[in-house]
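Subject: Sanity check before I submit

Could someone independently write out the structure tokens for this chain? I want to compare against mine line by line before I put it in a report. The sequence has 408 residues.
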Amino acid sequence: MTQSQSNTPAGSTRLAPLAGIRVLDLSRVLAGPFCTQNLADLGADVIKVERPKFGDDTRAWAPPYLKNQDGNDTAEAAYYLSTNRNKRSIEIDLASEAGVKLVKELAKHCDVLVENFKVGGLKQYGLDYESMKEDYPALIYCSITGFGQTGPYAERPGYDFMIQGMGGLMSITGERDDLPGGGPQKAGVAVTDIITGMYASVAILAAIQERSRSGLGQRLDIALLDCHIAMLANQNLNYMTTGVAPTRAGNAHQNVAPYQVFKTSDGFMIVAVGNDSQFRSFCTALGITQYGTDPKFATNHARIIHRAELIPILERLMAGGERDDWIAKLEAVGVPCGPIQTIDQVFAHPQVIARDIWKNIPHPTGGSSPTTASPMNFSATPVQYRRAAPTLGQHTDEVLSEILGIKK
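---
Independent answer below. Compare away.
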């Protein structure tokens, strides 16, 4: 185990969960950086290797940019800032022999290497797993690709949007084809990249734990397509147990009813009835208590079968009241529900404020950089927001001096 800078929470003698773990991050864009940000949040020393002058692709995915204290744009794209906090950035040219040598030397002092080059893309530099595994037997080498290291698509590039289509998500997302607005619809955020980053994080943590017993590293083969399909969860089993592929259901649930969006007189809201008791309470709040025990609607199984009869009745009733009034009535009887909010409304919500989700971290050019809090909450070793996403090459001299003894 290598030693990174101290990540001890203030007032505690306990180190951050991954203090002492060092990660060499050769990834860029979203899935890989999201993974390594998780590790950095947990206390790992993440060294982000970037191309000279250009850096991570997402540095150019703007506007918007972070603004400085005068309200003017800095060179830091908001997209890049979202997944690179708590890391150190160094510029290394992998196209040069000297650059490759530096990466190999740094790898000797690292526990984990994360990369998301195309399959075979690092072989020309001798930085692929097969080239490195003998000289770095304890290194955990995580490869994140579109389609994995094997199979007929292995060498193809993969991107979140493509995988949402190929992996089935867009066939079950969006309004029904027979209704206005029906047709394929992607998610509003790159969910495939995010879930891949999460699976990669979990796999790395498991490999670190296994290494504590064996003393050996291993290759982690994490593919966007694999992770995306795994994410479909119950929808996969809906198909696998029936032979019938699920289709788009708009804002309704395939297996539970009523579990959907309802229009009220002044907006939209969600009602998420998860069991028969909640349905009876829902009916009481709507003034149709008899429906709660009607054999056609009393059980979820019956409600799914008679959905086409039930939902229009509920829609008419819900449309006659105001959103917040319905929310108050349903919450009073224990029916899960809530408003559909814009992101600005999300951050203004009292629960979000109470959970301290909006964080600000000092930034060398922006003065302060906003960031979304990690949802990983620890009672004794909380996540520390040590650094905003680094500027390009901000820590090159520092890292090379500290780890390799190279002085400028």
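---
OP: Matches mine. For the report I'm noting this point. The chain has two domains: 22-231+357-404, 259-348.
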